[in-house]
């Protein structure tokens, strides 16, 4: 009987977490994957595929000779080169409510960034971070690199 209760609770937790993810609005979508790339969500890695939804706090990692292209809801575009890792630490895009924010943390590798509407509406709300520096974005296109483990 106790095993049945525990199984029931686990099924309920799984259904609730799937329901919560379905209710959250995606920050954007994977557009292109070459080679191997993963999305890390809540500590779990899953293969990245074109069309996959991405969310605030997701991380992305590419393998050797691989790349990943992502487009966010505000039309920001992000491309990761091989052996790279980045985290979408913050994404808020609700202009009508005045909620705008984008923070990307490049942990290692190389990334290309093309700004979208968040930068156009509130440039100070966009930050790109590496282990060594924080960059406030005041332009439309840049490439940045981070040396890491």
Query: What is the mean pLDDT?
Result: 85
Low-confidence stretches: 9-23
Structural class comes to alpha+beta
Helix amount, in percent? 10-25%
Number of helices: 2
Q: What proportion strand?
A: over 45%
Gyration radius (Cα, Å) is: 17 Å
Number of domains: 1
What is the element layout, followed by pairings?
Layout: H1 2-23, E1 28-34, E2 37-41, E3 44-47, E4 53-54, E5 59-62, E6 67-72, E7 77-80, E8 85-94, E9 99-114, H2 117-121, E10 126-129, E11 134-136, E12 141-146
Parallel strand pairs: 9-10
Antiparallel strand pairs: 1-4, 1-6, 2-3, 2-5, 5-8, 6-7, 7-9, 8-9, 9-12, 10-11
Report on the structure:
With 149 residues, the protein is an alpha+beta fold. It has one domain. It contains two helices and twelve strands; from the N terminus they run H-E-E-E-E-E-E-E-E-E-H-E-E-E. Strands 1, 2, 3, 4, 5, 6, 7, 8, 9, 10, 11 and 12 form a twelve-stranded mixed sheet that branches. Strand 6 and strand 7 form a beta hairpin. The radius of gyration is 17 Å and the shape is globular. The protein starts with a helix and ends with a strand. 26% of the residues are buried.
Distinctive features:
alpha+beta, 48% strand, globular, 149 residues, twelve-stranded mixed β-sheet, 18% helix
Task: Sum this structure up briefly.
This protein is an alpha+beta fold. It has helices at 2-23, 117-121, and strands spanning 28-34, 37-41, 44-47, 53-54, 59-62, 67-72, 77-80, 85-94, 99-114, 126-129, 134-136, 141-146. The chain has one domain.
């Amino acid at each position: 009987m106790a095993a049945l209760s525990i199984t029931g609770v686990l099924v309920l937790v799984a259904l609730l977490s799937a329901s919560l993810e379905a209710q959250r609005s995606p920050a954007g979508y994977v557009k292109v994957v070459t080679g191997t790339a993963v999305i890390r969500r809540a500590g779990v890695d899953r293969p990245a595929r074109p069309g996959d939804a991405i969310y605030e706090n997701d991380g992305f990692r590419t393998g050797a000779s691989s790349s990943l292209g992502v487009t966010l809801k505000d039309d920001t575009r992000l491309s990761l080169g091989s052996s790279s890792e980045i985290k979408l630490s913050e994404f808020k895009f609700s202009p009508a409510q005045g909620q705008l924010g984008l923070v990307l943390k490049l942990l290692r590798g190389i990334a290309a960034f093309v700004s979208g509407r968040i930068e156009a509406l509130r440039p100070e709300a966009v930050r790109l971070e590496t282990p060594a520096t924080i960059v406030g974005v005041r332009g439309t296109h840049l490439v940045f690199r981070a040396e890491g483990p």
